[in-house]
Amino acid sequence: MPPSHEAGWAHADGALKAPSWLRPPADPNALVPSLWPSTAEKVDGDLRIGGVAVPDLVADFMTPAYVLDEADLRARARSFRDAFATFDVFYAGKAFLCTEVARWIQEEGLCLDVCTGGELTVALRAGFNPARIGFHGNNKSYAELRRAVDAGVGRIIVDSFAEIERLARITDDMRRTQPVMVRVTAGVEAHTHEYIATAHEDQKFGFSIASGDALEAVKRVKAARRLELIGLHSHIGSQIFDSSGFEVAARRVLALHARVADELGVTLPDLDLGGGFGIAYTTQDDPSDPAQLATEISKIVEHECRALGVEVPRLSIEPGRAIVGPAMCTVYTVGTVKPVTLDGGAVRTYVSVDGGMSDNIRTALYDADYSCTLANRESTAEPVLARVVGKHCEAGDIVVKDEFLPGDVEPGDLVAVPGTGAYCRSMSSNYNYTLRPPVIAVRDGKARVIVRRETEDDLLATDMGVTDE
């Protein structure tokens, strides 16, 4: 916790020091390659992505805007597909989904997981093969389940006894057989934020192995006439760098897998170990590459299967943010620069931009760290420790908590924040009636809108008090 002070935490001794992992850059104009899409570069101070200069993008499309590197996203999808060649690799629709990205993912040979009827709608509109879709969610409605069965979704991951009963009724009524996986909680505490750790006992997802609910769920699915039990599903969390959690989870889930075979005489063909692999948001993050992850996880599963005397099931993995997260950045225009002098003479430089928590809620919600760079010119000024903030009426409307920017940053400058592909556009809002930014895909020197910017007409479209004059 920050040290206390009668005037508030920001006034305490040391409050304005950079975090220990953040070092003043030798050149504040330079990019840290691990944080950016693979095509990102600086040319005479201008940030270029996919061969397109960001100032040119802004001239055409304004700010704020999400900029998505198509080649980078496709390359990351292929790297997971190739590294996990014997696995089914599921792209996380919740991280970011639109019809164009769904098409790219299908073209690169990946599967897709969705967790609402809306995400399923986007996938089907994109022409995604429903047999390669997995449907997640802890509270799927009757209508959502019925549509998934009707569409021919390849697997529904059941999450409660009520859902098993609901899905059994639907499949009987439709006279359709539906492949099902049972989501289990392995009691693993992933080393991540509390809100995105999903395999410990005290949370809303899945059936507990320890309590016996998981085995009971397997029995109920097996007893349902038109539910085809294909395997168990486990997911320990998100933004994970340490494979030790997967080792513990695999041991516990595979023990249940073996028990199902011994006690019920059912050999489950599939096993999904989730994923949620981390990405580099700042220099403190050191993610593993897909080949390393594939090697480690395969060894873990093979070792546990040998110990249990069972065949290795067909495996699925869900990389989560690791495919789209690094492929996108967000570009803003600076509106004000405000040096604020605190007690003792310390100065915090607030750089206010034309977006904020409506287009990136993660800093406020998860205390997430981000980086940024000046995107429209080269500067010779000394770097200063700055805080990039949004335009919303919230003190917690912070985009980048701490980063070194050139000391001459000024209104009209462009600032780009990397690593915003996952959970930024998908969790965006109209808070303060702001307009959601567009998603601009760039590749080979060309830019195109794949999700348009909202308009004021969009804001008013659902307001039933609006009348035409």
Task: Give the helix/strand layout.
Layout lengths: L40 E3 L2 E4 L2 E2 H8 L3 E5 H14 L4 E5 L6 H9 L3 E4 L2 H9 L7 E3 L6 H10 L3 E4 L2 H14 L3 E8 L21 E2 L4 H11 L3 E8 L9 H21 L5 E6 L14 H19 L5 E7 L7 E14 L5 E7 L8 H5 L6 E2 L8 E7 L8 E9 L7 E5 L20 E5 L2 E6 L4 H5 L9
Parallel strand pairs: 4-20, 5-6, 5-13, 6-7, 7-8, 8-9, 9-10, 9-11, 11-12, 12-13, 15-17
Antiparallel strand pairs: 1-2, 2-3, 4-14, 14-15, 14-19, 16-19, 17-18, 20-21
Account of the protein in words:
There is one protein chain. Helix content is 27%, strand content 25%. Helix 2 packs parallel to helix 9 (290-308), helix 5 packs across helix 6 (161-174) and helix 8 packs parallel to helix 9 (290-308). With 469 residues, the protein is α/β, with parallel strands linked by helices. The strands form 3 sheets. Strands 4, 14, 15, 16, 17, 18, 19, 20 and 21 form a 9-stranded mixed β-sheet that branches. It is globular. The protein has helices spanning 54-61, 70-83, 99-107, 117-125, 142-151, 161-174, 213-223, 244-264, 290-308, 362-366, 456-460, and strands at 41-43, 46-49, 52-53, 65-69, 88-92, 111-114, 133-135, 155-158, 178-185, 207-208, 227-234, 270-275, 314-320, 328-341, 347-353, 373-374, 383-389, 398-406, 414-418, 439-443, 446-451.
